[in-house]
Design brief:
Blueprint lengths: L13 H44 L2 H19 L6 H21 L5 E8 L6 E8 L2 E10 L6 E4 L2 E4 L2 E2 L1 H18 L4 E8 L7 E3 L2 E5 L3 H7 L8 H14 L5
Parallel strand pairs: 3-7, 7-9
Antiparallel strand pairs: 1-2, 2-3, 4-5, 5-6, 8-9
Length: 249
């Protein structure tokens, strides 16, 4: 995902949240401009007219209350946020961080994880890089919010509902490859899906494992051990990755 620097504390979803904040600020400026002309020309006259009608039918107090409520509702509509895919993605990455966190908390040095890391000489970033006795694993978070659109394979290719995901897989494989270059070791690629249903046990397409995010921790623990990946190597790989792949935001 493209990134922009911000003062936000680095961590899972930080670069996506920074972009979401930029989009929201632009949206807010546009809303201010709309409110500047709409309130005096539309909102206030309409609210006043409705208030006078209500006052004539009931009482002055009721008319005033109706006018205020009408104005507030109109302003809320003007300032309503449409949201963004960046904010949704950032929230998903933070959820994945909390799913992964117990590996480090209770792993006694057997796991190390880096979140939201910059790909060198690129605007892309890596969501989560997991280092364990299974070797390095790149985890890409996907927040696919439609619970009706299932994640499935068709002809060996990945689909999310009616949407083919070959570009998604290509991107994830490219990102895993860049992580492998930084570490000097092959990196497994995994997509962790929030919300949309993935078959139990996950799917495999183009060498990428696609799994429900809630199953991610169990999946990682079940991976076979990679030769030589003990606690010392995990710590060494973490230090190297921390230098080669700086925080994205």
């Amino acid at each position: 995902m493209p990134t922009k620097r911000s003062k936000r504390r680095p961590g899972a979803g930080a670069s996506a949240q920074a972009m979401a904040d930029i989009i929201r600020a632009a949206e807010r400026r546009k809303q201010h401009r709309t409110a500047a002309w709409a309130f005096p020309l539309l909102v206030a006259p309409i609210a006043l007219g409705i208030g006078l009608l209500a006052a004539a039918a009931t009482s002055w107090y009721a008319g005033f209350a109706v006018a205020v409520v009408t104005a507030v509702l109109a302003l809320r509509r003007i300032y309503r946020s449409k949201g963004s895919t960046w904010a949704t993605g950032a929230a998903g990455e933070r959820r994945t961080r909390w799913i992964l966190a117990p590996l480090v908390w209770f792993g006694l040095g057997g796991w190390a994880i880096l979140h939201d890391r910059q790909v060198p000489r690129s605007r892309a970033n890596l969501d989560h890089l997991v280092l364990g006795k299974c070797g390095p694993v790149y985890v890409d978070t996907k927040t696919w919010k439609s619970k009706k659109a299932k994640v499935h394979l068709r002809g060996g290719n990945l689909w999310y509902g009616k949407h083919p995901q070959h570009k998604t897989l290509d991107t994830v494989l490219w990102e895993a490859g860049r992580a492998a270059q930084a570490l000097g070791h092959p990196v497994q690629a995994v997509i962790a899906v929030h919300y949309a249903a993935v078959p139990p046990g996950g799917l495999i397409s183009q060498g990428v494992t696609i799994i429900q995010a809630t199953e991610l921790r169990r999946f990682l623990r079940a991976l076979p051990k990679a030769p030589g990946w003990n606690r010392a190597r995990i710590a060494s790989a973490y230090r190297r990755a921390d230098i080669q792949l700086p925080p994205a935001a």
